[in-house]
Amino acid sequence: MRRRVWYVGLAVAVVALYAWALRGAEFAPGKLAGAFPHAWDFLKRLAPPDWSVTGTAVTALGETIQMALLGTTIGALISLPLAVLAARNLSPRWLSVIGRGLLNLIRTVPSIVWGLFFVAAVGLGPFSGVLALSVYTVGYLGKFYYETFEAMDDSAAEALRTAGATQAQVFQYAILPQSLPLLANYTIFILEYSIRAATILGVVGAGGVGYYLYVYLRNFDYQKAATMLLLLLAVVIVMDWLSGWLRQQLLHGEAKAAPVTS
């Protein structure tokens, strides 16, 4: 009876929560019917794509990929030690609280705000985009990493601690080898996401294809913007395939490395 009351109370709370969200967001399905003509008018302006900007688009996309690659790599290198500090099974509680608080603070700031901050600090261009992506990556990869460390099987770590191993040795020989496939998986995911985030950063002058998209749309050059979007779509499709292939390789490698038990 007590469990049934709890479930009923939970259901009522969920319904009230969504009712509050729908009211606050002014959610009105009826508005969608009147929105289709305007949406169709916008889409018509994108056709046909203006392929005269293909060279500019390819250069900008290359810049976007460069920004994402460098930003993800730098962010991953910074995330690893921060994740060790934030993991409860690897650091004292007070240090874990500080590490998690720092990562939470970084995640609180949207990527576009980091872009504005670094544009103001180092000027317009892709370098500010790389710095913004690096910090943004730290916030998310740091969380993914420390949650991975905490989810690992602790038996090997306990055995090493019992044998007198230091915390650094426990991490190096027990936690990190188990975590590597998941860490690589998360890093590939963030690399894929960073290409999209770099596009947003271009709006604030941080380089890449987003800058040209913003300029074309602001000047009502919708057909040039359509070319940018189509080429960006091609890059996203290739990155999606590549990241999926790399994940499969990691999974196969993990399966081959797993010991066979009878």
Describe the structure.
The protein is mainly α. It has one domain (52-253): MetI-like fold. Helix content is 82%, strand content 0%. It has 10 helices and no strands. The chain has helices at residues 2-24, 30-45, 54-86, 93-108, 111-122, 126-151, 155-162, 167-201, 209-218, 222-257. α3 (54-86) packs parallel to α6 (126-151) and α5 (111-122) crosses α6 (126-151). It is globular and about 70 Å long. The two termini are 45 Å apart. The mean pLDDT is 83.
Task: Quickly describe the structure.
With 262 residues, this protein is mainly alpha-helical. It has ten helices and no strands. The protein is 82% helix and 0% strand.
Structure keywords:
single chain, 262 residues, mainly alpha, MetI-like fold, 10 helices, 82% helix
Ranges where pLDDT stays below 50 over 5 or more residues in a row are none
The assigned CATH architecture is Orthogonal Bundle
**How large is the radius of gyration?**
24 Å
In the CATH hierarchy, the third-tier topology is known as MetI-like fold
3D shape: globular
Based on DSSP secondary structure assignment, what is the total number of beta strands?
Answer: 0
Return the string of H and E elements: HHHHHHHHHH
Count of folded domains: 1
Note the total helix count.
Answer: 10
- The N- to C-terminal Cα distance equals 45 Å
Query: Oligomerization state of this entry?
Result: single chain
Q: Give helix % range.
A: over 70%
The main pleated sheet reads as: none
The structure class reads mainly alpha
Average residue pLDDT: 83
CATH superfamily: MetI-like
CATH class category name: Mainly Alpha
> How much strand content do the residues show?
under 5%
